[in-house]
């Protein structure tokens, strides 16, 4: 608290400035500051008392609300990593360091608008807004559930640690998000739609064309495409050796999702294009875009599809297109699974159903016989 005598640089007039700066003893990150110009010292003295009272009231209110969401997240991380134990501070269960970092990263990425808001002020509207935004940007159902779980876990920790006061549940607890029927036909592009996507992307010289065509031609995941090094592109053998994927949370490569390397054949129709991509100075085959780094590859694809009159699909749909159209073209399921790195046949069955090869022609004989009888 202070009263300072200053001079207005424009008019040369002297004025008295009241400056109040209060910091919480409970939570040093909470601070209230106020300034006010006065013409006389007497006026400044009166305003000093008034502003001090207002600042104390506001500080007490903030202390009652508890910490901002950013501090809750960082305190959760500090507790989870305390003394190298790496455990969930809520239940004491062991957590891998990567899981801790993933939790913090997903919260900073998707609840970024909450970070400086007192956690107690966050409500269901805030929670629904975050989950809806994640869904609209193409985040998978499983990833949205992980986001919801992370918010619930860290928020409950904040309540138990008295960092969050006056509430007893998180902004997403009990929120029902309509993820649609589990047996709903997944996003897919027909063969003609895939042709249009690639034709228009190439014609318009879209920067993402190399990424999209390679995703459709190999079935590689986004993280595998990002991590693909030129040394693993074997043009003479017409093979791409898929040995790693990219961990966007730490900015490093790791093993593939299936935990083993595999080969994907290079179609003769794209060999010349790949040769052109190999001429860049980067050790990686494909260009790296800021949107890709930020996890917005689905948004880029959706926007382009909408612009050229195609169904709006997420990036992972390109992998589904690979599997479905490979099966429909007559390649056996075991080979497609091997190329694409699917371990579970149960998971892979959806693509067999989409291709419809098991049902195709199954009714020909029966219906033909019935129609033959009606003609006699």
Overview of the molecule:
By secondary structure, the protein is mostly helical. The chain has three domains: 2-65; 69-160, no CATH class; 191-355, Orthogonal Bundle (hpI Integrase, Chain A). Helix content is 47%, strand content 11%. The protein has 15 helices and eight strands. It has helices spanning 41-65, 69-80, 97-110, 124-136, 141-160, 191-203, 209-218, 222-227, 271-277, 290-293, 297-307, 317-328, 333-340, 345-355, 364-374, and strands at residues 2-7, 14-23, 31-38, 233-234, 239-242, 245-247, 252-254, 262-265. Strands 1-2-3 form a three-stranded antiparallel β-sheet, covered by helices on one side. A hairpin with a 6-residue loop joins strand 1 and strand 2.
Main beta sheet strand tally, sense and closure: 3 strands, antiparallel
The helix/strand series, from N terminus to C terminus, equals EEEHHHHHHHHEEEEEHHHHHHH
Continuous helix count: 15
Number of strands: 8
Please describe the structure with a list of short key phrases separated by commas or semicolons.
single chain, 376 residues, mainly alpha, 3 domains, 3-stranded antiparallel β-sheet, elongated
């Amino acid at each position: 608290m202070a009263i300072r005598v200053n001079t207005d640089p424009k008019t040369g007039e002297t004025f008295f400035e009241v400056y109040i700066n209060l910091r919480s003893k409970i939570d040093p990150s909470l601070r209230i500051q106020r300034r006010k110009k006065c013409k006389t010292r007497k006026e400044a003295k009166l305003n000093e008392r008034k502003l001090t009272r207002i600042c104390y009231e506001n500080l007490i209110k903030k202390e009652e609300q508890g910490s901002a969401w950013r501090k809750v997240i960082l305190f959760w991380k500090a507790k989870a990593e305390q003394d190298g134990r790496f455990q969930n501070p809520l239940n004491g269960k062991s957590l891998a360091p990567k899981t801790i970092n993933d939790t913090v990263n997903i919260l900073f990425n998707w609840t970024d608008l909450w970070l400086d808001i007192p956690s107690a002020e966050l409500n269901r509207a805030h929670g629904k807004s975050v989950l809806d935004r994640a869904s609209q940007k193409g985040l998978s159902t499983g990833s949205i559930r992980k986001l919801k779980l992370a918010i619930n876990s860290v928020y409950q920790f904040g309540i138990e640690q008295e960092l969050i006061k006056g509430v007893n549940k998180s902004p997403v607890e009990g929120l029902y998000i309509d993820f649609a029927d589990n047996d709903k036909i997944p996003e897919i592009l027909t063969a003609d739609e895939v042709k249009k996507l690639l034709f228009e992307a190439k014609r318009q010289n879209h920067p993402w064309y190399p990424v999209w065509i390679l995703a459709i031609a190999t079935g590689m995941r986004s993280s595998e495409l990002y991590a693909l090094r030129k040394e693993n592109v074997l043009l003479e053998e017409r093979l791409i050796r898929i040995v790693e994927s990219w961990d966007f949370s730490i900015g490093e490569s790791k093993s593939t999702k299936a935990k083993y390397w595999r080969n994907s054949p290079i179609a003769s129709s794209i060999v010349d294009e790949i040769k052109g991509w190999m001429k860049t100075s980067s050790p990686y085959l494909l260009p790296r875009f800021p949107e890709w780094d930020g996890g917005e590859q689905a948004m880029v694809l959706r926007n382009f599809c909408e612009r050229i009159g195609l169904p709006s699909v997420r990036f992972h749909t390109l992998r589904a297109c690979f599997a479905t159209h490979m099966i429909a073209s007559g390649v056996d399921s075991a080979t497609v699974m091997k190329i694409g790195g699917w371990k579970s046949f149960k998971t892979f069955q959806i693509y067999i159903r989409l291709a419809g090869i098991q049902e195709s022609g199954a009714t020909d004989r029966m219906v033909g016989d019935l129609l033959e009888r009606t003609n006699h």
